[in-house]
Amino acid sequence: MEQEFPPVKYVVPGIIPEGLSLIVAAPKIGKSWMALGLAVELSNGGSAFGCIPVGNPRPVLYLALEDGPRRLQDRLVKLNAHVSTRLEFIVDMADEKVIDTIRDYMLDHAGLDPVVILDTLGKVMPPAGNASQYGHDYRMLSALKATADAVPGSSLVIVHHTRKYDGGDFLDAVSGTQGIAGAADTVIVLKRDRHEKTATMQVTSRDAEEGEYALTMTEGAWELSGGDLASAAQAAQTAKQTKGVGDRMADVIETVGRFPEGIASKDLKVLLSDIPAAQLDKYLSRAVDAGRIEKPTRAFYTPVRSVRSVSFTTPQTDTTDTTDTPLEALGEAVA
User: What is the second-level CATH architecture of the domain 10-227?
Assistant: First the structure.
């Protein structure tokens, strides 16, 4: 207990801490675009996901083992990226060279918080042979993790595919045995429907806050919805709560979702004046019964409080229909 440890460093504050991280998604969803965007922002000291400052520029090695120089150049042009001399690419490598290459790069850039991005794990994963598949997966990921752990401040981000079967826990989506997810410090699962620009990013980590965030992909660039983690977390929650409902019910849930601290029904009737008051009351009642919104006190509604990255508080005021709640207090969203 008397030992002193340096604080955990972050590749992307609030999402990706130092160590070994997995970015997992189905094929052709945009995970390589995400990895490339991160590489550019980290090497320039820019903003990840369009809004999270990553701090000082750092050396980045991108092992783009599924893409050639032409495709990488095309993507960088589309991203309108400034390619720093701190960003290096390798597009071809023998499987047995990957760990030595990563280790050497991190040692060469010790003290500068280097990041290596491996795209993808499947390109360097040797066959298990007669060994246990779980033990093989865990040993391989542990060996990769050891390269980052050996150099304080260094990080390894690995791009990986999801399995075809998607279980109840989002970690079940990670292809291979649980040895892969188990060895990682952080796992990010990216989900996007085909031909849709919006997606969700689910994060679990030993050091970062667990959460689920909404993103939008535009011309290859991934951006958090709402411009910050809290807004993106609420947007993801709202999308989940409005899935499978009609347009009117979705409007009600989305409007409540804009007010993390809650909103009185009388103010909802002002914002949703196109819905008759009696009908709005029915929508609100049904949404509460279905667990899509919450009703902590009489005539007062809040979003569902399951977003761990957002702190909700219930106002300690009388919230009945007869209580005056100035619309000005609700902020610009009401005005």
Answer: 3-Layer(aba) Sandwich (3.40)
Name the residue with tokens 């309108």. Answer: 80
Which amino acid type is present at position 97? K
Query: 123 by DSSP, 3-state: which?
Result: helix
Compute φ and ψ for 35, nearest 5 degrees: -65, -40
Domain ranges of the chain: 10-227, 239-330
Contacts of 266 (CB under 8 A, 6+ apart): 299, 321, 325
E strand segments, 129-247: 155-161, 186-191, 198-205, 211-218, 221-224
pTM value is 0.80
In the CATH hierarchy, which fold is given to the domain comprising 239-330?
Arc Repressor Mutant, subunit A (1.10.10)
pLDDT of 49: 97
The single-letter code of the amino acid at 263 is: I
Assigned token pair, 30: 């945009």
CA distance 159 to 137: 15
Judge whether residue 249 has pLDDT over 60. yes
Q: 45 — phi, psi (to 5°)?
A: 70, 40
- pLDDT of 191 higher than 80: yes
The Cα 231–Cα 254 span in angstroms is 13
Cβ-count burial of 247 within 10 angstroms (0-12 exposed, 13-18 middle, 19+ buried)?
exposed
Helix (H) or strand (E) holding 229: helix 229-242
Helices (H), ranges, 16-97 = 31-44, 69-78
